[in-house]
Amino acid sequence: MTVSVLVPSSLVREAEDKREATRKLGSVARAATVFRCDRLVVFPDPEGERRWGGGFVETVLSYAATPPYLRKEVWGERDELEYAGVLPPLRAASRTGSGPQSSGSLRQGIVTEVGPDGRVRVNCGLQHPISLAAPEREFDEGERVTVRISSRRPVRAKIVDEPPPGFEVERADLSGVLGREDAGVRIATSRHGTPVTVGRMRTLAGRPDRDGVTVAFGAPERGLPAMIGIDVNDLPRWEDADALPSREVADGSDPGFDLWLDTVPNQGSEVVRTEEAMFATLALLNCRE
What we know:
Strand content: 25-35%
Low-confidence stretches: 97-102
Order of helices and strands: EHEHHEEEEEEEHEHEHEH
Helix content: 10-25%
Strand order of the largest sheet: 9-2-1-11-10-12
Radius of gyration: 21 Å
Mean pLDDT: 89
CATH class of the largest domain: Alpha Beta
Distance between the termini: 15 Å
CATH architecture of the largest domain: 3-Layer(aba) Sandwich
């Protein structure tokens, strides 16, 4: 199941300085890692941006998602990363296979040298870059690859066509992401949405369509309805808790959400921060029957 999380370019609009903005993005990255999100998408909200917009948000999140052993080589020195030291460690769990062809742990690597003999040298966090056979295609220096390590002493590893641990970061429009084949159930979070209940969560957890879920969040003091121009009184309601609402073609204002949910019903604070809403929402969606 593909889990995609969508956050706006105005995500850090209330931060007092770059350090605080970086720290907030670190909490977002932690939530994405804890709940095994596959994709973290930054969608444009130019009207809500202040000092730090989509470029800053994407860069810091991408840096956070990069394994520590590759960060210096991949990113070097950048102004957006001035306070990268406040980012919490993500420690994305390595996926381990069980068969003879898939045993071992996955690690992200970067190609440091391309040889003439069909081999490449890859830095994947071991003591030295390792020489590996290129599997039936050409690689470029600086390209990121996934390496499956089956033994460290002696080193036995190979490049595989699999996603590494953690999540990938990209920038894209809401409508484009919601229209993807692996979007699954498309959820917008809002305090004005339908409150979650045990019955509704049971229906979500037991749905036959388990190929994916896409969930979008707003920004401080600027929710998703305001971003896409929908009156909160016009949000669709989930009336029958025993069945998911039927999909409808999006109109000119709605980019294509299936559900508008209030995942923190009866909230005790006037404002639930985006990173707090992520932990609350993804914990609910992580439930199984």
